[in-house]
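Quick entry, no commentary yet.
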Amino acid sequence: MSAAIQKLQHVRRAERRRPLLVVVALLLSLVAIFAVRVLLGSYTVAIPDFFAILNGQSIPGASGARFIVLTDKLPRAVLGTLVGLSFGAAGAIFQLLFRNPLASPDIIGISTGASLGAVIGIVFFGVGGLALSGFAAAAALLVAALIMVLASGGGNTGGRFILMGIGVAALGAALINYLLTRMALPNAQSAALWLTGSLGPANWERIRLVAVALAVLALAVTAICRRLHLLAVGDELAHGLGLPVRATYWGGLILAVLLTAVATAAAGPIAFVPLISGPLARGLLGGRHSILASALVGACIVVAADFVAANYLPGGNLPVGVLTGMVGAPVLIWLLTRSRNEGR
């Protein structure tokens, strides 16, 4: 009996350590993928040369190395990391709120709303930078509020939110297409590239804006994280435990929308990253939810996909959204199939 108890205690200790081990493994994976994105590809950079460039030194026989590293490879890797963290965390929060693996901002219209706001800002106001992020965030919040109003009343709010969001996403996509037809051709081409999801426009000013916004939002998510996880037990039980359920829903929803808006304004609606990150993280964690693990998975996906799309897809230097869209579609089909089987 004592041996069995000791074995059970050992298993429980291993299960308690598992989240920390997974997070550490994901951090190391992100560092490795980041290094590959910066150092390898069609133009390779040696590690000593990379640190020499960061120190402002010139590289003999490689006059263009500094320009390539500091204006292309490194900014794209940094922006991809920040955007991936935002999308991954946003997807995890939505899935926690509605207890549904399909509750993702790119499925339920939040990314489309942010895109619509950004396109309106570009077409009618010619904005960029922080102002563009403001337009995207405002439109995403309005779309989320609209969906919440349409889905309110009765039970199964999460299911209705997803269905209403899909409908609103279709309407938003139609409006975006209409605006694209009214743009001048050069602007339409730029907007179409942005709507695909691309890290091509990465620069240090944009990175600073995203980093500041993400730092503020990360503090807010940390403050509300425990409450969000309590929602997983169900609204009635969470309310019985003293959790302000409605306030937590709205607080989590606003944070997830803002994370989506910031990432979308910076790099466009990179397809399926919020949807994929949560289920992959839960698979690594044995079914547990983790916003941090989901955010790290999202960062790994974006940086790795940008590396492949920029160097190894036919056509060369394609937007990252092209690859995530191709990979994400089969994952969506898998999630739908699994949800149907679990519902039987």
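second:
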Amino acid sequence: MHRVYKYVLPGVGAELDKLKALAEAIPNEELRTQALSSMHDKKFHCQGGGVYAAANLEYRDVLIPLIVALQTISDYLDNLCDRSTSLDADDFRLLHQSMLDAVNPNAELKDYYALREEKDDGGYLHHLVRTCQIQVAKLPSYENVRVHVEELVGLYGDLQVYKHIRKDLREPQLLAWWELHQHKYPHLKWNEFAAATGSTLGMFMLFLAASEERLSEKDAESIRHIYFPHVCGLHIMLDYLIDQEEDHIGGDLNFCNYYEDKSLMVERIGLIVGRAREDVKSLPGSRFHQLIIEGLLALYLSDPKVRNQTEVKDVSKQLMKNSPLTRLFFLINSMWIRKQQA
């Protein structure tokens, strides 16, 4: 936490300030609104992702700009799709091609807005993509993790397409997509797999791994399987857990709504927590990753949204039962950070 406060949060803040200045200059009003909104409302995504730079401070000047830029693309595009003037799957697919290009240092920039009305962002999205490309090229072992990063980014893009199309098509498309991957994750339910694909943590972990010299292809593959699906799934299931009321009001798809009852939801999320804890034990520096898991639980379950949702509050209490001291530390820390930011 000393590293996070001294190096990571100031670094993330400096990167976001630069991007905010660029976003404020976006000519198109709708694109400008969504770019600024994504940074204002989802700043904590970049702060949370930036924690991975604390594990290798020598490369923080590469990891922080990279993580902030990729997370900002993700949040910006999520806003564009969520509050979209379009329900066109091809439009969403083309927008998310920018994330695939961002993690490929050799990819050429494209017109990612070609299939929508709002087009003039003053080069904002191209700047984000190029920033990622420049930074990944500086990671000494990036070529050994690239195939896994691209796989996770591809799955992330698939999810964003299927969950933002016409409401009557969303569930059938998601289920058809799950059928293609079900054989690899037979212990998961379709909504849990879909949730895991919505996390950027696996990508950030692979960036951190690539900052080490001589990372082997075998180790890169192991790291990808350690983080996906359980650590990634836990991340997004907690996000959906606290957003249930908000999503109900907005008519948005929420993966926590597909359990038969509350007790099954607690059981399944508890199972994912257990698997995530077991998975990271085999990583070098496993203590760091165990802290990430406890930090996720504390961060989401201390969110003010929990207080106003009786059922979510009950679920949170059950998930926090017998909390280890580290989780209680992060719980207090999360509350303190929110108070400072407020």
